[in-house]
Each structure stands twice: as C-alpha cells, then as structure tokens.
Request: fold
Amino acid sequence: MSTDALDSDPELDTLYADFEANHLNPLWTQLGDLMPMVPTSKAVPFVWRWSTLYPLAQRAGDLVPVGRGGERRAIALANPGLGGVPYVTPTLWAAIQYLGPKETAPEHRHSQNAFRFVVEGEGVWTVVNGDPVAMCRGDFLLTPGWNFHGHHNETDQPMAWIDGLDIPFVNYTDTGFFEFGADGVTDDSTPDISRSERLWAHPGLRPLVGLDAKTSSPIACYRWKHTDAALAEQLALEDEGFAATVEPGHAAVRYTNPTTGGDVMPTIRAEFHRIRAGSHTRSRRDVGSLVFQVFDGKGRITLGDQEHSVATGDMIVVPSWTTWSVDTDDGIDLFAFSDAPIVERLHFNRTHFPEHA
Amino acid sequence: MSTDALDSDPELDTLYADFEANHLNPLWTQLGDLMPMVPTSKAVPFVWRWSTLYPLAQRAGDLVPVGRGGERRAIALANPGLGGVPYVTPTLWAAIQYLGPKETAPEHRHSQNAFRFVVEGEGVWTVVNGDPVAMCRGDFLLTPGWNFHGHHNETDQPMAWIDGLDIPFVNYTDTGFFEFGADGVTDDSTPDISRSERLWAHPGLRPLVGLDAKTSSPIACYRWKHTDAALAEQLALEDEGFAATVEPGHAAVRYTNPTTGGDVMPTIRAEFHRIRAGSHTRSRRDVGSLVFQVFDGKGRITLGDQEHSVATGDMIVVPSWTTWSVDTDDGIDLFAFSDAPIVERLHFNRTHFPEHA
Amino acid sequence: MSTDALDSDPELDTLYADFEANHLNPLWTQLGDLMPMVPTSKAVPFVWRWSTLYPLAQRAGDLVPVGRGGERRAIALANPGLGGVPYVTPTLWAAIQYLGPKETAPEHRHSQNAFRFVVEGEGVWTVVNGDPVAMCRGDFLLTPGWNFHGHHNETDQPMAWIDGLDIPFVNYTDTGFFEFGADGVTDDSTPDISRSERLWAHPGLRPLVGLDAKTSSPIACYRWKHTDAALAEQLALEDEGFAATVEPGHAAVRYTNPTTGGDVMPTIRAEFHRIRAGSHTRSRRDVGSLVFQVFDGKGRITLGDQEHSVATGDMIVVPSWTTWSVDTDDGIDLFAFSDAPIVERLHFNRTHFPEHA
Amino acid sequence: MSTDALDSDPELDTLYADFEANHLNPLWTQLGDLMPMVPTSKAVPFVWRWSTLYPLAQRAGDLVPVGRGGERRAIALANPGLGGVPYVTPTLWAAIQYLGPKETAPEHRHSQNAFRFVVEGEGVWTVVNGDPVAMCRGDFLLTPGWNFHGHHNETDQPMAWIDGLDIPFVNYTDTGFFEFGADGVTDDSTPDISRSERLWAHPGLRPLVGLDAKTSSPIACYRWKHTDAALAEQLALEDEGFAATVEPGHAAVRYTNPTTGGDVMPTIRAEFHRIRAGSHTRSRRDVGSLVFQVFDGKGRITLGDQEHSVATGDMIVVPSWTTWSVDTDDGIDLFAFSDAPIVERLHFNRTHFPEHA
Reply:
C-alpha cells in the first residue's frame, strides 16, 4: 500500500475529512508511530548535575515561600524529550525538595505514591500519618498513596533531598485523588527512629498486629546503616569466594515490602547499587524507565552511545529500552528507582543484554 | 503563597528562566494540574453511532487496500478531548475494522493486547498462532500480547467488527514491540470452532497439558451462545427469587482467564451486561476508563449530566470518574471493556455511588 | 553406633526407662521408621471390584435404614495395610453410598471436603445449601467443607455412587467440625441442573456477583457431557496432529475451581483420564496418594510389580510413591482423585518416571 | 437407627463379616469417632520440665554416642495421649538435642522441615548447605526441607537445644525422603554470623540475586538481639500510647520468610511472645496444634481447665481446639511453634475466644 498514491485521491481526502469530522482516525497512516518495532521513548537519556540542582534549590529557598497551595518547594526534573512537562520519564516524577531553617511543608495526602532519598544533610522530619520520621544521609523514606504527610525542618540549616513520585502515571491514567491535611505537622517531636521502624524494621520479624499482605511497605524509612551493611557484606562474601553479587564487583539490594517480599510500592521499585573500584556493570536494556542518583563516589555511565562522567548527587535518567552500563575507577554508590512494578505487573517486562563489541 | 506577587519579581523571573534552561520545572506553580483533587480526565464522555461508523468503514473498504505496512483497515475512535490522537481513552484504543470479500489482513504480533467483538456479520477467521478462529455475531475473541495473528475473509460479503487494544497505554509507557509475520495466514481452514476452544472452553475443566497459571486466557474465542445463556440464566434465577444479578434487572458476566479466574488479559477487562426491559442500573463512577458497545436493543445512557439515546452498534466512552447509568424501556445488551486490570493491579481502584436526587 | 551393644547396657536400660516414665522417646533407635529414605506407606496397592461393592451395598440397603445418627448408608474402602481403619489411603476416605427408592439422607455439614462421582444410575438429588443437584452417570459433584447437604431419591429404583472425602486427614490433623441440619432436604424439587451450574458452569465466564477467589469451586456439578466432550476433543486434536494429550492416546482433564484455575477443593484433586484402545500410560510415581475408579471400558493397571485387570466400577488405590501405569486393548475411562493439593500446597511434591526395562 | 437393634441381627452380622472380608467398613457405626462435632484430639495438654529434660539429655550424652545411623542425640517429647509414638502433637515432633564437647552430628538432608531454638548455652555451629551458623541463647535456626545439615560442638562444654520438625505429618502423609551427607561437617569454620544472614538479614532489603519467592525463608538464623529488640519496642510503644501489642501487656512477633512475608517454612509457624509482669493473655482456642517453650521468666499457663506453673525451659503442648491462656506476675518470654501453615493453607483455620466467666 503506497500512502503517496492514497494521499492524492480526492475521494480519499473526503473520506479522511469525514473521519476527522466524526472523531475517527485511520490506523493505516500512522501505524509505525503508534506501534513501533521496539520501545521508542520520547524521553531522552539525560544527566542533571547536583552542582546545578542544589544552588537553584537554594535560590528558590530564598525567593519562594513554602506553604498551603503550592505545598512543596520541589523543583522537578523535566526530561528534555518530553516537551516541557515536568516529568523525568513518561511515568515518573523526580524533584529536589528544599526546606529552609524552621520551615514546615504542610500535611496532605494523595493517591500518588512517593518516596524521599537523602543524598546530604539532615534535620528534617517527615511526618507520615502522625509518625515523625527523621531524614538523614542515605535514608530512603516512603509515603505510599493516601497517607497524610508533611515535612518540618527543626534546625537552623536548610536541607534538600530527592522526591520520587508516580505523578505522570497517575495523571495519565486519571487515577489521582488529593486531600489537604493539617497546616503544620501533627506531631512535631523529633525521635531518631519512627514508630513504624520500631514495629517493622527487624530482619525477618513481623508484629502480630496486621498479619495481612499490605499494598505498600509498612516501613517508613530504610536507614542507611542497614543498606550500607548489606552492600558491604555482599562484596565481602564475593571476596571470600561466595555468590552474593549481581556480577563481579557489583553489589545491589532491592528495598522491599516485608509483608510480601515484593516492591515497596505498587508503582515504584527502588534499589541501591554499589560498584567496586575498577569494576563495571554489564550493558543491558530493560522495558521501563529508570532514574539513578549518585550517592557517593564517581564513575562513568554510558547511555546508548554516550558516556557521561557522574559524581555525588548527579541524577541520570534511562528511558525504556535504552542500553546502559556503569564503570568506575574509584567506586561508586548509586541509588536507583524505576517503574518496573508497573511493567512487571502488567507483564510487559523484557531485558536484553547486547553483545559486547 | 500568592503566585501573582511572585510573578512580578525579576529575581524570580530569572530563577524560573534558569530552571527552564536546566530542564527543571517548579511544582508550586502547577500543582493543581499535576495533582487534581479527583481524576479530571482530558478525555470526554462521547457516543459514536454505528450508523456513522459502518458506512465510513464501507467507504474505506472501497478506497483503501489492506496489506503489509498499513496492516489493518481499522478506523479508530478518537476521543474529542484528547487533541486528535486516535485514543478512545487515555489507555485504550478502539476501532471498527473492515475486511472486504476474500481479503486478508497479514499476520503480525505485538506486545499490545488485543480483542475483537462482533456486533454483526460473519465469514472472517482470525488466525492466532496458526489456529483459525471463526468470527460470528456476539463472539469475543482474544489475541493477547505477542501472539501472531491475521484475518481473512472467506466469503463474498464484507465483514466489520470492533477491535480493542491497549495501544495508548503501551505507547505511553514505552513497552511495545512489534514483529511482522506471514503475508497471508498460516492456516486458511475454516472450522466452526478453534482448537483453543476445543482444548479450553469446557466449564470448570482444564487439559492436563500446561497446568501453570497463564498471563492471558488460553480461550481464543468466547462464543455468543455461552454468554447469552449465562445472562438468560441470571435473569431467570432472579425471577425465581434467587440472588444472581448485579442489581434488579441487571445481569452481567465477566470474561475470565480459566487458569486464574481473573481478567482475560493483563491490561483489559471485558464484560457483557444485559438490562431487562423497564430496568436501570445504579449510578456509579469508577477510577479507570470504560467503553461500551450496544450489542442489541436500545436504551439511554447517562454520562455525567447528559443523557444519550443509544441503539445497536453505538459505542460509548466513559472516562475515569465519570458518573454513568443506563436505563431501558425495551431491554438492552451491552458489551463493555475497560482498563480496570491496570487500575486494580496498581491499587488505584475506587468506586463511588452518588446519592440519588 | 551399634544398637545391639547399646541395648545390653543396664545404665542405658535405666535411661530408656526414665525416658518412658517422662514421656520421652529417643530418636536414634527408631530413625529409620520415622524418617525412611523414600515414602514407605503402610497403605498397600489394592483393587476393589464393583461386582463385590455393589451387591454388598444392595444388601446394606435391605438391612440398614438410613437416617439421623448414622447419617449415610456409606460403605468405606479400608486399605488392607492400614490395620482396619476405614481409610482408602492415609489421607482419603472413599465409599460406595446407596440410597433406596424414595429414601432421604438427612442434611448436615462438616469441615471435611466431599465429592460424589456417579458410575451408574440416576434419580437422586444432592441438595447443597438448598440447591438441588441432579446426579447422573458420569457426573462429578462437590460438597466443599461446611456446606449443608443431604440426598434424596425420587425414584422407585435404588441408586449407588462413590463418595470421596478427606476424613482421615481431617481426623488426623484434628481440624474437623460437624453440625446436623434439616432431617429432610430443604428443597425437594428436581431440576435437571442446579442453580450453581446455571450461574457458574459457562466456559470462561463468571457472574459479577462474588468476584473474589473462592476457597472451593462454586460449581456444584461437573456434568458428564462436558467431561466427555473435552476428552473426545483432545483425542481428535491428537489425530489431527496437534499437541493436546498428556501422551499418545492418553487424554485427561482436571476439574478446577473457576475462580482460581486451581483444584476444586483445598485437599482433593479430581481428574478424568481416557486411554485410547491399544494405548498405555508412562510408568510414574508421585508423592501423595491416588484412587481410581474405572468409569467405562477395561484394561490393566500395574501397581508396583503387580498387574490387575480392571473393568467398570472397579476401584484402585495407589499409595504414595507407588509406581503405576495403565494399558488397555479396548479403551478405558478412569475417574481419579488424590490428595495432591495437600502435597503441593505444602511443597512436598515430587514425581519420578522409572526407566522402562 | 438403633445400633443395638442392628447388632443382634444375624443377617446383619453376616453382612458386617462380608464387609470385613472384602476390606470394607460401614460409616454408620462409627460416624461419631470419624467425624466428631469439634476437634477431639487424642493428644493431651501436657508440660515437660526443663529440670527433667536437661539431666536426661546429659545422661544420654554420657551413654549414647552420636554418629552415622542414629544421626542425632535427640530425645523426643511423646505426647501421653498418642500411645507411645514420639510425637508431641499429631503433626509435630519436638526434642531436646544434646551435643557433647567436640562432638559432631553428621550431615544429612530430608524433606522434613526443621528448626532449632536455643534456650541456653552456645558453642555449636549448625552447618546448612555448607554455611556454618552459630547457635546462641535465644536464636531461632532453620533447616528447611532438603537442605543438608550437620552440627558440631567446638567447645569443651556440652550444649543442648530444642529441635522442632514436621516428622509426624510427613510420616503420616508419606511424603518423606532422606539422604545421608558428609560424615563430618563440610565447613568447620566458626563465624559469628552465617553467610545466609549476611545476605538476607537486613530489614526490608533483599539481594538482587534470587528475586523469586522462596518456599522457605533464606534466613538461616533469627538472632535473639533482633527478636528481643522487636518485643521491647512493642511494649515501649504501648507505654507511649500507640497500638503495637496483640493485647495489653502482650508483645509478639512472627518469624517470617522475607521473600513472601509468610511463615518461615511450609508446615511450621514460629513466634515469640513476651508477656509483661502482671499481665495475662485472652483465653483462646484454635484449630491446629501448638507448642511453647518458656525462654525466660515464669508464669502460669491454663490448658483447658488446668493451670500449670511454668519456668525457663519448660515445654508445653496445646492440642487442637484446646483453650489456653497465660498469666504472669514477673513477666514471661515464650517461644512458640505450631502447624498453623498446614491448617491455614488447607483452609481449616478457626479461632474461638470463650467468654470469660
């Protein structure tokens, strides 16, 4: 079928006009765009530098108040391929959030699932359904859908961290609800660990209250000391000759829901990867989109054909089916999150390991 | 926080310009659009008439050849709210497909999940992985993701039917793969029932080959006689005084995967509803989008504030969180499909029954 | 460690006596019995003849009334290896039940799961929670745990059928509850099919009432015409060159719970096997115990080293890990039930195919 | 139906004799025993004293060597109601195992699931598939079915602990396999924590190797410090006014499989309960059998109508459907294990809270 030939036919022109008038649209003229041979994301691979992000957040801290209405002083990563919408990937939203000394971000809740990851600083507590959760370097915090949450800074220093949400996905699928809560936070105490952790963050143990499988993890915060220890042990076991790492020099943990063993939230996967000095990861590409933040160290990440040097705080987006690998001379720690639970629960997951040249 | 005040600040203007230059985007200026209080779909409620659809399909049959490249003579319903993209809802694609006498639509496969529903006509066989499946009025056919399929018309009459796919969702999430197959169909025989049905379409029985849970239903076609009988029995049981219907006068079945009891495919739910003469359904709204096709009879469907008279073949779209109800003087049969499996597997499902005035 | 040496030691004798006095028991003297190298059932392979069973049931019909207290005129198969207890295997109970003209077996319920299978006759209705279920040759009926049920014979002819329950398992694990119900049956109407079937026995369809996964199948009766058709289709597909049978000449279906795709009840699996004239099954042994009833035809079943000729109505028990195979000159139809769901849900399942000599 | 009347009938006597000769057994004469109204276990409530158990184990240590054949110096609790078989309940086996200075119990594996719980002492390593696991007071160790395991004592002191297995269940259901392994242990190193723990015992984290759901927990040992901390936190949260305990003064954790959130092994549930000084538990009875060992403190346990004073090391058996409660003046710590996974996976579970007098 030659579309050139078709296009010059006046009867056909009338037909196409009639289609349009009746809110119809022929498949045959646009099949390739609608159904490409492999995932062809509009999103592009990109790197945001911490050295850019943090100063801009500071300037926003000076100029923009935080409070009811705007809700959060969060600056979103807008993937350059997505035409200006504030989405880091088609499904994921990622931002740097900044809270000045003694500031409070008021409570609200929404069906969107959210997490925080702290690359530097401390002194803010996120209050989740009345449970204050200290935020410190390396901690991974959850506020799953429809839990009230606010943030307050108890110190004389500002603090910034990374937020990750499924805002684009929820917006696109028309599944979002939002509700305002208290203007302050409902508990301004400042414990070292949350009640949630005291109940749930014991290895392999669960309380006898609430024995069902929960939609999202009941652990409000995954502390750095545990993540760090788990990664260190994997590399130590590798040194001792035992299978423990993903591949030589590459330790990794997944944050999980202890009531199911699965992902922490229905739409977002989170992992932490440690790549030993002098090591590299195997090139791979997966269906679904992925974001890294360098937590520590430095290295090079190859995205498709292009290599980027990255260092602490830098954020890297890997669109669906983009080949990526990391290598490092000095060692690198990477926090990672993705939409893999969406892809896997709907059975679209595939992984491909390109041949090495 | 007054955005008016903020907007007039030159320092702030510079900040916002710097955001944009660095592919960043503040949350506080756009929160309401990104995270509305309830689902606020761009898609609008709409009705397409069979009396419009079918003649346009016929004209396409006369003017547009079917074959490799365009692949299918399918004319998609383009929701008027979605800016011209060929999507009936943000997640779903629906089209009338038309195949002339002796025509063949060549084989291909894709990760998108697809079904066909036949509102009139017969004489086409869909060949799924080499298994010919007759298409007749009232039949519901599956071609789950990554199964090769083609269509061929063995008669001297054209035939049209409805296709439903998750093309928008797959496109949006960058999860699609596509592969061409045979130019003809791999088996041009014309049995009354498919091998798949002979193996799998026996109530409560499964063959001892393939005892695992399958991602999608192995039943290639759900025949009208079974659907009709199931609905008739529900109404008869209601007449006899037993609980069998959804509500008085409203019988309904869900098409299921016999290996799990769940939906036929990971992303698409399909149901059939029969509303008895003089009955109506309770007003409701759900998270997720829904499409009806009138299979038989006529009635009125209320979408939000607006009532539409509908008759055989008409297609009606109900965007997420839109209140709908049906009432009928003479009885109406409705085929329905939706993205409910996506919504439910990711735990965004909610239903609301508005109070009656 | 020589147990001979140990046994002659007086200090040890005292120790063993002290063990006994304190309700203790050393492992080391009895390990082999407690933990054999492979399953070594006390139950033995055995065949009961229909030509024996049926006349004995008739005599019981003449001599023993049926009614409240004894509840059922059921004569249980007592595996000769099990020391006189009325268990066909360690976990399963099987009996021939006999109901004379116009007799009624009163209603009761129990946590034990039960089924009936009809090898000949008709005219009895089993009433399950008030739903009358006709019993005819080849039908497989369920009364899952804690459903009230009674039987009544509406004809002038007696009728006999097979009952299968998990009585031994429930007795052994102390999990049984029992409750008397109505002295008659709560609905003495005699429809051809039950309301349960009218709601649930449509291939791949489920009513929109009760959309959860159910513990046991909601289908009260799996009719012979469906079972027969499914088996006939498998053999026809085999003849046409397609994969449909377990092995050449061996068709088989499993009865399933349409809300899960799994077994009909939590403790009992039921299947139907058809072996074509001139065919045989591959020798195999499985963990778990299995009972066959010949439904039609005749053949030879090999149990361990011994071959038995079997014909319609004969019942054959295959204890755990006993090698079995069937061959037939004229074709044979076999109903089968087992404790496989217990074994599989607790992850003890293994299968072994011995090499052919 | 009067069984007296029936018994005196000579025709009936002949019938019953014919039943017996043909390995058949009438239901109506024994229904009450086979299918009681509520679970009526042959097992009885009973208490074994640590002050009895430990000295007898010591004497066995002096008199009975440990090694290949007898395999383990384990002395099983024989429920007085079960006629001398070495079963603590119909489904569970429990024993005190004793290993002298420098002794080794050789490696083997079996399909039976096993755990160890340490009420006093240390110095033994259990080697599970080559991974040495230190045993210390309060630790709970797993050797799930078909994992090779041996024990070796590296000290000059003997050590005793509790073994729990599903030997009776496996024996009864004919599901057991057994295989001998190395005569010594395959790794005689003595690390403080096992490799399994280094990989898996981090709260809410799992390694990226082996992402499937595992049949049994991959955590070889649940250390006392975690159990103790989890219980202490629950009571502290209760003191602070938050819901964290089962009931006032009663903290409890369940040991879980981190890959599923469910029980550690398919047949055995294990929990730890701490009852605060001056508190008591609510009377309850459950389907399934339960065993406690007092880990610390003392109190009174009421089993049916009888109250028993219990102290450290004492073992208490609660047969199915036996009402029990605990109260304590000084506080008590209780380790508990049961067959609840069997009962729940087969849907026989029920719980009843008797009214307080």
Observations:
- Chain D touches chain C through 94 residues (CB under 8 Å).
- The first strand of chain D starts at residue 24 and ends at 26.
